[in-house]
Design goal:
- The chain is of the alpha/beta class.
- It contains eleven helices and 14 strands.
- Strands 1, 4, 5, 6, 9, 10, 11, 12, 13 and 14 form a ten-stranded mixed β-sheet that branches.
- The N and C termini lie far apart (about 35 Å).
- The mean pLDDT is about 95.
Length: about 325
């Protein structure tokens, strides 16, 4: 049984081959596997922890490609459902050199929207040491019920819970309802990472300390804000800090945040196993962990595609030795 379980969307990303163009301007696209929780699952496996993924793909060539790709990366896909009557979700992405992304989804519905509690294996979830989820699975009733049920089962089993919301306006009908659903996802999470682009929408605060306070008040023990080329900020109830980013030539940033999230999970889980919770760590150790997460994100930026870009632990070690 895997020690870490991730639940959520697994889809095909089509990346614009040209740099700094809009989707309307792009002429050529490159296929790559993606989906934030799936990216995290692959990154966790590459960083040395056993990991399983729960989600749904279509019974189509893209779904077969995704299952094979994630399995070849070392992730257990035995609980990845195959849906017969809908297609695998697609996303088209045009990335800017400054980190901004133009994204359009094709999922009306997509297979990931068909995940529900019937796809869950209670015994599989109960043995997890860590459980990770995002906010896309909180949009539709079936995936939301599955996500919440999985959160309860893993929490009851003593797992560390991690959450990384993704605000995709085109997927929600109402921004206020979206914020409420996204905020509900923080409840019960021990660690949460939020990107700078999503920070103000999620917390309704521009300032890091004020926004972190909103999330800490919901019970999150460690809040990390990823800030692209500016690094990352972190806060617990007692400590806070900032860690600068590493200077790299950014080719495409899509998998960077997911890689960083995976690193946080792996590093924090090592402490969790010794009975030390994220909120109990001292500032030097939190700084070390966030610095390593920044390194994973930096390496992911140097390659195209989310899953293909995610580094192995030895690559991260070598990168840090050279700094």
């Amino acid at each position: 049984m895997p020690s870490v379980i991730c639940l959520g969307e697994l889809l095909i990303d089509f990346y614009a081959a040209e740099a700094d163009v809009s989707l309307a301007e792009a002429r050529t696209f490159v296929k790559a596997p993606g989906g934030a929780p799936a990216n995290v699952a692959v990154a966790v496996a590459r960083l040395g922890e056993s990991c399983g993924f729960i989600g749904a793909v279509g019974n189509d060539p893209f779904g077969e490609f995704l299952r094979d790709t994630v399995a070849q990366a070392g992730v257990d896909v035995s609980r990845l459902a195959k849906i017969d009557d809908v297609r695998t979700t697609l996303a088209f992405i045009a990335a800017r050199s400054d980190g901004r992304k133009d994204i359009t989804f094709y999922r009306n519905p997509g297979a990931d929207m068909r995940l529900d509690v019937a796809h869950l294996d209670a015994e599989y979830l109960a043995q997890a040491e860590a459980f990770h989820y995002g906010s896309i699975s909180r949009i539709d009733a079936g995936p939301r019920a599955a996500t919440d049920r999985a959160r309860r089962l893993t929490a009851e089993g003593g797992a560390m819970l991690s959450y990384d919301p993704n605000w995709r306006p085109s997927l929600w009908r109402d921004a206020d309802a979206a914020r409420d659903r996204i905020l509900e996802g923080f409840d019960g999470a021990h660690v949460a990472k939020v990107s700078l682009e999503e920070w103000e929408f999620v917390t309704e605060r521009a300032d890091f300390s004020a926004g972190a306070g909103v999330l800490l008040d919901r019970g999150v023990q460690l809040v990390v804000r990823s800030e692209g080329p500016d690094g990352a900020s972190f806060a617990t109830a007692r400590r806070s800090g900032h860690v600068d980013a590493f200077a790299v030539r950014c080719v495409e940033p899509t998998g960077a945040g997911d890689g960083a999230m995976a690193c946080l999970i792996v590093e924090l889980l090592a402490h969790w196993r010794r009975g030390v919770k994220p909120g109990e760590l001292d500032a030097p150790e939190l700084t070390r962990i966030v610095r390593r997460a920044n390194a994973v994100g930096a390496l992911a930026c140097t390659r195209v595609g989310a899953i293909p870009s995610l580094p192995a632990a030895r690559e991260v070690d070598e990168f840090l030795r050279k700094q």
